[in-house]
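Tokens for chain A. Residues wanted.
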């Protein structure tokens, strides 16, 4: 995270380190089944660990408590004393104390803290962060449609681990923030996990470095930059450029399935070799660069390393100078690889209002509040759809593109996307930026915001025209 050091005397500088609070919250929902047994599921808003801890039922025998999976096998044991159920959750920090919550009690198990709560629209509050604020009415967005949609979200059933869990929903139109809502305990000051949506930061930084006149660009060769003079290189490696990394078309043997030697977990979850860059550069090539795109997180990470070496600047320092400060991002958290390079494969934590600024930066042709950060040409080039990715989307320079139905036609959106429901989406034809955070990591509702909420609710609420 950025650290500001202030003079504190002769030869002295001091600053306050504010680490990100790495907290874990667990809810156990218990209901009696028709046969009298107790069904249960585990919800964890920060990481959705209930998807990996297969809790399906609970048994109690006096003070002993047993947590069961769907086959009634014991996955953990605990104790019930004085109304507190203490349960050990393996590999998650130790034991947790659970207390009974009344049906009418306030708890962030529910989106707004209560099982039901009527939604009332209030315009975003002005803050000293560069965002002008306005109202839905001023922006030509139906207040009634938005109210009805958020009412349905707040009142949606929460009776399964796979329920849609939106943490934040923000909308900006005509350059003003007009909707800002948070759920499940998230708030405006919370730097949220962005997962793979942070990949797009590598493209933003590349464009900012070019605009600042640094000697880097899409044509920058990867191996000549990182291993100059290397002999006996595969010709396909000699042809590899920064553009291929930004478009996921490097040709490396990886696809993030967990089964290839270059997949993200294979590289980042091993403890033997801290030199992730060397491991990536040593990978075999299975296709020529630029032939096709395959989703693989080592590509944007290596792109970040190329940017750092080509400019001679540490990546966190480069980001702070060229992007964060111009956009007024004062609090964020960057993931680091073991040898100190910023990890650009994902996982940065940003406040949603700050992350939304990247969408507005692109919508305004590379400027933020009149200050140029990117060239217009880079905005166009990096969002141009180049390769198919999945059944409906296409991929540019770490930006996804998707066509949505709207008013009897289609409009094109480009967006940063991360596991769990993390989005910053731009719809140029409607002068619209949408931001969302979510907690549906690794479950079926992961894409629900982009494939259901936005086309079904938000776009129909927006009046035509810029």
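Reply:
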């Amino acid at each position: 995270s950025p650290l500001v050091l202030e003079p504190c005397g002769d030869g002295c500088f001091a600053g306050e380190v504010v680490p990100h609070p790495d907290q874990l919250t667990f809810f156990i929902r218990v209901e009696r089944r028709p046969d009298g047994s107790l069904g249960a599921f585990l919800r964890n808003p920060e990481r959705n660990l209930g998807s990996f801890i297969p809790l399906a039922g609970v048994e109690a025998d006096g003070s002993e408590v047993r947590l069961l999976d769907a086959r009634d096998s014991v996955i953990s044991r605990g104790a019930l004393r004085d109304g507190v159920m203490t349960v050990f959750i393996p590999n998650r920090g130790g034991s947790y104390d659970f207390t009974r919550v009344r049906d009418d009690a306030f708890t962030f198990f529910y989106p707004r803290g209560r099982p039901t709560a009527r939604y009332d629209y209030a315009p975003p509050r002005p803050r000293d962060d560069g965002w002008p604020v306005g109202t839905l009415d001023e922006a030509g967005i139906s207040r009634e449609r938005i109210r009805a949609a958020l009412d349905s979200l707040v009142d949606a059933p929460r009776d399964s681990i796979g329920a849609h869990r939106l943490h934040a929903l923000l909308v900006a139109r005509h350059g003003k923030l007009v909707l800002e809502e948070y759920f499940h305990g998230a708030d405006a000051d919370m730097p949220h996990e962005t997962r793979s949506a942070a990949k797009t930061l590598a493209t933003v930084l590349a464009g900012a470095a070019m605009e600042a006149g640094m000697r880097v660009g899409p044509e920058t060769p990867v191996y000549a930059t990182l291993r100059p003079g290397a002999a006996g290189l595969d010709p396909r490696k000699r042809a590899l450029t920064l553009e291929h990394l930004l478009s996921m078309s490097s040709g490396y043997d990886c696809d993030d399935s967990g089964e290839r030697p270059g997949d993200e977990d294979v590289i980042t979850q091993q403890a033997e070799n801290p030199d992730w860059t060397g491991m990536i550069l040593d990978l075999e090539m299975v296709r020529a660069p630029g032939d096709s795109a395959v989703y693989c997180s080592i590509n944007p990470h290596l792109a970040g390393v190329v940017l750092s070496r080509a400019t001679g600047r540490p990546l966190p320092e480069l980001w702070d100078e060229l992007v964060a400060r111009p956009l007024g991002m004062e609090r964020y958290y960057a993931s680091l690889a073991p040898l100190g390079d910023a990890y650009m494969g994902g996982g940065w934590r940003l406040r949603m209002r700050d992350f939304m600024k990247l969408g507005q930066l692109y919508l305004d042709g590379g400027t933020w509040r009149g200050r140029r950060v990117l060239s217009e040409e880079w905005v166009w080039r990096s969002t141009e759809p180049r390769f198919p990715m999945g059944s409906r989307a296409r991929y540019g320079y770490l930006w996804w593109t998707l066509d949505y139905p709207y008013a009897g036609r289609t409009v094109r959106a480009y967006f940063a996307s991360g596991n769990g429901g993390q989005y910053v989406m731009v719809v140029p034809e409607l002068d619209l930026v949408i931001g969302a955070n979510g907690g549906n990591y690794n479950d079926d509702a992961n894409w629900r915001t982009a494939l259901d909420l936005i086309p079904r609710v938000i776009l129909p609420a927006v009046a035509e025209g810029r």
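The radius of gyration is 24 Å. The chain has a mean pLDDT of 94.
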